[in-house]
Amino acid sequence: MKIFCVGRNYIDHAKELGNDIPEEPVIFMKPKNALLPTYSPFYYPEFSNELHYEVELVLRVCKNGRYIPKKQAHNYYNAITVGIDFTARDIQNELKKKGLPWEKAKAWDNSAVMGSWIEMSNKQAKDNYIFSLKNNAQIVQQGNSADMIFSFDDIVAHISNYFSLNIGDIIFTGTPAGVGECVVGDVLEGFLADKKMFEIEIK
Ligand code: ZN
Description:
Layout: E1 3-7, H1 11-16, E2 26-30, E3 51-53, E4 55-61, E5 77-85, E6 87-88, H2 89-98, H3 103-106, E7 112-114, E8 118-119, E9 130-135, E10 138-144, H4 152-160, E11 170-172, E12 180-181, E13 187-192, E14 195-201
Parallel strand pairs: 1-11
Antiparallel strand pairs: 1-2, 3-6, 3-12, 4-5, 4-11, 5-7, 5-8, 9-10, 9-13, 13-14
């Protein structure tokens, strides 16, 4: 199982971190150990002093493929949820300054949190998912997949030009504006429309 992530997929978020709007999807990966097992506690990472949440729509791959044409891409995912791409922003800023890879900022153990899956029916519009994140009961991030620079199908097609997609792979599709810091004791809740998909406390 592989975890793909898309960076800078919402214009407002790219701007809030001072990044250019990308001309093609920015792709990075997290290893399998990055996935926080269900019901496991989430611990603040020891190596960071600036932990950020990034709430994202997450897709589940349901078919093996490579070089997938955009028109066929919708056949390759069939479930969606909301998750957090946890980021050690202080580490990431240092790495970015030096032009170094991001893994130490984004791919550490338990840095990927996910809710339960919801099946996507083929007839359902796949480009109008509303999602949000609450921190201590206050809404801190809100997004709509319609605002993505690269759609689900764009992302799937693009990834498959470089990597095989396999059944069970997971794709974090990018975070909207409003990323921010969280501290020990914060309670984060992710929503797909009005449905609560996960709740975690930072320990
Ligand atoms: Zn992200």
